[in-house]
């Protein structure tokens, strides 16, 4: 995937350096697995206190800020220590241009990255989220989700806690609403993502129905059980290699069937009623790139199944099938963000 936009990188904090030393095989595992893992990894209030790299007292949500940077007028960065995750996940919070002087309250978009070792909370800064939201009255929260965390609390982990669902829903969301001027209500929140993050958006919107009024999946899988559960197998295998050291998201060789059903968008159709639903998928994956073809072919088939079920239930949705394979389409991201702003409560 090619990237554009300015990267929002920082020098690693002491905590990050320590964690890197404890996990030297993350990239070597990827290399040893070859291209297989690329296919498997299918894919907030008022101004906060002064910057510090020391762990703060528990803020009431189970989070401790261990690193932060609020020097950029729009893109603020935080890294948290949390019992939900065995390392310190990062979050970028993109503020509206007028946030610091307007006094207004804003809707929030939670925007999730895809899977793979090149994907994390700075992904959308590289891709151009500043440009997509320039002059727009919305806060965008972009958190870490793991290389292959699948926006889930895994059935098993051999590297300590990797409970991304708990971190995002029970800790990060209330922290954002306590620290930034946001509408802490259904009509004040949207969730969207690319690839694995698109699945996470669909999953959270259904499981936490009263949280999000708009949901968007850009090349995100919408059907876990089709083709003998191929997406479940991808989730398990990619997480085992990249994040969990042999642990799995849904269990193996036997799945936690109740968990699969609870997470499966096509089995939660009524949970999308009265929401804005936006879907996008590619119709022509690169025939030379087997990984791209597997990813987007499965995404397209699953989204078609999902759309058919929405149609039969009489649930409106906006969908796009466009040429190309498994990548972020900037024009559709811009269209989606404009639609999200139209749907949510106005700043």
Automatic annotation (TrEMBL):
Keyword annotations from UniProtKB, A to Z:
Acyltransferase, Transferase
Which family is annotated? Belongs to the mycobacterial A85 antigen family.
The protein here is known as Acyl-CoA:diacylglycerol acyltransferase
Keyword Acyltransferase set for record: yes
Basic residues biased stretches: 1-12
Could you tell me which residues belong to the region Disordered? Answer: 1-23
Q: Which SUPFAM superfamilies match?
A: alpha/beta-Hydrolases
**Provenance organism:** Streptomyces melanogenes
Reaction(s) catalysed (UniProt annotation): 2 alpha,alpha'-trehalose 6-mycolate = alpha,alpha'-trehalose 6,6'-bismycolate + alpha,alpha-trehalose; an acyl-CoA + a 1,2-diacyl-sn-glycerol = a triacyl-sn-glycerol + CoA
- Gene3D superfamilies recorded: alpha/beta hydrolase
Q: InterPro entries under this entry? A: AB_hydrolase_fold (IPR029058), Esterase-like (IPR000801), Mycobacterial_A85_antigen (IPR050583), TAT_signal (IPR006311)
Task: Tell me which EC number(s) this protein carries.
Answer: 2.3.1.122, 2.3.1.20
The main enzyme category here is: transferase
Q: Which Pfam families match?
A: Esterase
């Amino acid at each position: 995937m090619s990237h554009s936009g300015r990267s929002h990188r920082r020098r690693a904090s002491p905590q990050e350096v320590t964690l890197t030393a404890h996990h030297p095989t993350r990239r070597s595992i990827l290399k040893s697995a070859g291209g297989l893992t690329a296919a498997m990894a299918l894919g907030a209030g008022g101004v906060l206190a002064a910057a510090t790299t020391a762990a703060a007292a528990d803020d009431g949500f189970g989070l401790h800020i261990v690193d932060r940077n609020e020097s950029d007028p729009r893109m603020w960065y935080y890294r948290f220590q949390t019992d939900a995750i065995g390392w310190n996940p990062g979050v970028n919070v993109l503020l509206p241009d007028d946030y610091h002087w307007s006094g207004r309250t804003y809707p929030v978009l939670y925007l999730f990255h895809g899977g793979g070792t090149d994907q994390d909370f700075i992904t959308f800064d590289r891709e151009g989220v500043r440009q997509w939201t320039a002059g727009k009255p919305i806060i965008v929260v972009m958190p870490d989700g793991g290389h292959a965390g699948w926006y889930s609390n895994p059935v098993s982990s051999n590297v300590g806690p990797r409970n991304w669902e708990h971190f995002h829903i029970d800790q990060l969301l209330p922290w954002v609403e306590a620290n930034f001027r946001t509408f802490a209500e259904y009509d004040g929140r949207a969730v969207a993502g690319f690839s694995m993050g698109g699945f996470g958006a669909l999953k959270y919107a259904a499981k936490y129905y009263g949280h999000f009024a708009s949901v968007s999946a850009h090349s995100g899988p919408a059907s876990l059980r089709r083709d003998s559960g191929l997406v479940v197998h991808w989730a398990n295998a990619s997480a085992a290699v990249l994040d969990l050291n042999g642990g799995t998201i849904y269990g193996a060789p036997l799945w936690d069937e109740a968990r699969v059903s609870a997470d499966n968008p096509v089995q939660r159709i009524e949970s999308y009623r009265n929401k804005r639903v936006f879907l996008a998928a590619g119709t022509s994956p690169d025939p030379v790139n087997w990984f791209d073809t597997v990813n987007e072919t499965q995404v397209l088939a699953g989204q078609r199944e999902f759309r058919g079920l929405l149609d039969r239930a009489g649930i409106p949705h906006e969908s796009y099938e466009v040429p190309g394979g498994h990548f972020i389409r900037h024009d559709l991201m811009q269209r989606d963000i404009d639609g999200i702003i139209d749907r949510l409560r106005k700043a």
